[in-house]
Structures are given as structure tokens and as C-alpha cells.
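Apologies for my clumsy wording, but can you show me some protein sequence, whichever is easiest, together with the matching C-alpha cells, please?
=====
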Amino acid sequence: MISVSKEKQSNRIESGEQSAADLPIDEPPSKSQLKREFRALFDLGETMADLPNKQLAKIALPDDVREILQRIRGMPKRDARRRELRYLAKHLNELDVTPIKAVLDDIAAGRRAEARKFQQLEELRDQILSDPEQGIASALAEFPHIDRQKLVQLARNHRKEVEMNKAPSSARKLFKYLRELQ
């Protein structure tokens, strides 16, 4: 290979005289980049290994990858599991993981939506317990078929429990009733 001094090369670049031989060739990814990509595949495999069977069934995977995942699921979280996860990452490296990531993103979005609904129900319950008139009106707006009398009774029982320093069983019953309505 012909070497060109750095000074001549910089002069050519500044003057715009750069030949095709002087342009950088597509370089392979750096070792650090390869490690980052492998770590991402490792994390992807770990996420899949922690999924319940029902959610894992939604992902289209080759049989060998499914077998590796089943082996990993039975292992304690120690060195052997980590070795199997690295082995899984090697197999995932040969696959197009874009569809897998898309399904995992959908699953995560579903979890976030469930958590959001749960928090909204908690807020509605707290509103009913703190200000029964306003809270019951909000509950009726959200659930038109709700039993108003039951809400009033549970709110009244909760107030009595608080006054008597008892366990908040009415609050739990109210939350359970609101979850059933969903």
C-alpha cells in the first residue's frame, strides 16, 4: 500500500484534491460498538426469559431459541444463567430482532396502559373516600351503570372505620368493586 504523508493528505483535503483512494473505506464497527450491540442482545434475551409463557408465545421465534429460553427460565440468576444468556445473544445476533423488539414494545405499552388504569381507579377511590358527593358524581360520570347506593354505603363504612381506627376494609372493597366495573 502506498503511504501518503499526513501533511500531503491534509493539503489535498484542504484544496479539495482528494482521490478515491484517499477516502476512508467502510470500516468495521469498533470493538466498543460490538460490545454495545451484544449487550443490547443480551438484555433483549434477558427480557424475553423473564416474560410469562402467554406473552412469550406472541413472539415468533425459531425452535432452538425457544429451547434456550426454556433452559434459562429454569435456572437461578447466577453464572450458569448468564452463560446461557450469552449463548442466546449469539443466536439472536443471527436473527432479525426488529419484530421481536416490536412485540416487546407492544407488551410494555400494554403494561403501562394497565398501570395507568390502575392509578386512575385508585384516584377515583380516594376521591370517593375523601369527598363522597364529588367522588360519587365522578364515578357516575365514568361508569353510568354503577350502583350509587353501594358507593354511599362503602364511603360511610370507611368513615366509621377511620373514626374507630380499624383496618380500611371498606376502601379495599370499594377498589375491588371499581375494578370489577372495568
